[in-house]
Specification:
single chain; globular; 21% strand
């Protein structure tokens, strides 16, 4: 395999998962610099700007895999920033999934809902089916463009389209670059995808790609970050129209310090989101005055 690209890493550490399906489980975290959104409630803004990208340490996929293996943990979370801005991410994920010493790895990618998931979904599908080659999108990842705050007004009911049905005339969607010839990998891949609510800001909310949610399954989760009680009704509508319930986990996570979790719990009980899970940020409870390395 050719030498892999380098990744701008702003921190790597071992902690317990503060949220997601594996909340409370020890994991190795790798945080990449840079993000294509600017959410109002972002708690990692320090990792997102141009200065963070410039100051980040460059690490190869091999270096990151060796570090994860050295921690001895059996779970790894790739986060940011926005990890899907890294064009070499499928290669890194594939190498992490190939680890079996000292443990096979549960690989989680946390992404913001505005980037194309097709490369990772195809990688996972190909590994599961034992195909001789994994094919993924070449070039920069597909990202939802910024839209006017008025674009949502009068919009018809959300239509969800599978990635396989999308046109592939855009070179960012063409599935051309082979990554490996492995037919079986011991690790597993799980996606936690944010669906931005109005509290995130009009730009972030409008840049969600509905197609990114269409092919998630029981291994994955969609997370609605709730900045106000009104966000619960928005989340319920989006989850129902996208057919998330019964297909993947749906998480509701109050913004720390901005909304009373008890109010969110009350609103959740009054909503149609009976299969959703209220989730608090465990790391904020355990280490309330620490913003990095947790």
């Amino acid at each position: 395999m050719a030498n892999s690209a380098c990744f701008p890493v702003v921190e790597q550490f071992v902690s317990v998962n503060g949220e997601g399906l594996e909340s409370g489980r020890p994991a190795a975290f790798i945080r990449f610099a840079g993000c294509n959104l600017d959410c109002a409630y972002c708690d990692t803004r320090w990792a997102n700007g141009a200065d963070a990208v410039a100051a980040a340490e460059l690490r190869s996929a091999e270096e990151l895999v060796d570090w994860v293996r050295s921690t001895g943990v059996s779970a790894v979370t790739l986060t940011g920033g926005e990890p899907l801005l890294q064009t070499g991410l499928p290669d890194l994920v594939q190498q992490l999934m190939a680890v079996d010493d000292p443990h096979p790895l549960r690989v989680e990618v946390e992404t913001n809902g505005s980037c194309n998931l097709t490369p990772l979904l195809h990688l996972r599908e190909d590994v599961q089916k034992g195909r001789p080659k994994l094919r993924c999108a070449k070039g920069a990842p597909q990202i939802a463009p910024a839209r006017s705050p008025d674009a949502q007004k009068g919009r018809p009911k959300l239509h969800i389209e599978k990635a396989s049905q999308r046109a592939t005339s855009d070179p960012m969607c063409n599935l051309e670059r082979p990554f490996c010839t492995s037919t079986e990998l011991p690790g597993s891949l799980h996606l936690t995808v944010d669906w931005k609510t109005p509290a995130a800001g009009a730009d972030a909310c409008e840049r969600m790609l509905p197609s990114t949610f269409a092919e998630l399954d029981e291994r994955d989760a969609v997370k609605f970050v709730i900045g106000s009680v009104d966000d619960v009704a928005f989340a319920a509508k989006c989850a129902a129209e996208a057919g998330l319930f019964g297909r993947c986990a749906v998480l509701v996570s109050p913004v720390w310090g901005s909304v009373d979790p008890a109010d969110v719990a009350d609103a959740l009980q009054r909503s149609d989101m009976h299969e959703a899970r209220l989730q608090l940020q465990l790391h904020k409870i355990l280490w309330p005055n620490t913003s990095r390395g947790v």
